[in-house]
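Appendix B, Record 12. Input sequence as logged:
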Amino acid sequence: MSVESSPIELRSSPHFRGVATVDRIMLDVVYALCPIALFAAFQFGLSAVCLIATCTAVCVLTEHVICRASGRPTSVGDYSAVITGMLLALTLPPGFPLWMAAVGSVVCIALGKALFGGIGFNVFNPALVGRAFVQAAFPVAITTWTPAVTERFTQFIPSSLALPFMTPAPVADWVARMSVDGFTGATPLALQKFDHITTDVTTLFMGMTSGSAGETSAILILACGVYLVFRNVVNWRIPASMLLSAFITSGLFYLADSEVYPNPFFTLFAGGLMLGAVFMATDMVASPVTALGIWIYAGLMGFLTVIIRLKGGLPEGVMYAILLGNAVSPIIDNLTQPRIFGARKRKQPKS
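Logged structural output:
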């Protein structure tokens, strides 16, 4: 009687499998972004809807064209381009010209993602690469703000439909026709930095302020972040460390001079800190993998955000803080590698 032995299959570690796939992870992020996008549409109406649709569609189209041009199967089905487009749109002013948004979307995918080899290889968050480009290329449009909840479903903000390379219609004239009282054309961060006028924290928490399309409602962003944590899509330590670092740093400035610097709760709820901490700083590819490295990485970004806001020339610093954090992430990873079990510490040679 012959006994047939089954072949032994040898595999490299890790020797476990999970149910998570790239498609499922990315789809969860899309689900989490949808309530924020809907709130942006509620606040700013048709202009916000078209801004989100334009950025998303152009990002997906760019991804498809680049994949086909390089002879690879299209990767639009993994939803990463959808996330990039939605995030870019949510970081832009609601009246941002759509043609500029389309240019920024191409930069997101072509320079922020495809140039490094596609998903899983990007050094920087692709949406922030596009955001940095449009801030440098279109500085006036990127700092032009409109009030929320104003005739939003009956007409576009005039600047949204501006033709390429043409000067948009002045938003101030449109605001005047809407009979909006008390609108200064500045975000809460700009009002605090340049005029030392602090917006009520409750208003910031609920989101009924001017600003980028998706950064206004802190409570909604936090709720979406909790969903991602429970789905094991993001590492909770990153937003926790970034927000805690920003709170402590801002608190120290506030204790030093409360007449000039805002209270730490204003720092947390104003601007794009919440959106950046939950959806951008948590980029799996651009963040460290070691436990200690994650705390250092996120804490550094929270610290830099406050320093740029309070001591820099711009009222907002989240974008630059995250991009700088992405840049030093590999260094942090290398410096925080755990000691190999059983390895001896190398002795220094005697001089």
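DSSP finds 14 helices and no strands in the chain.
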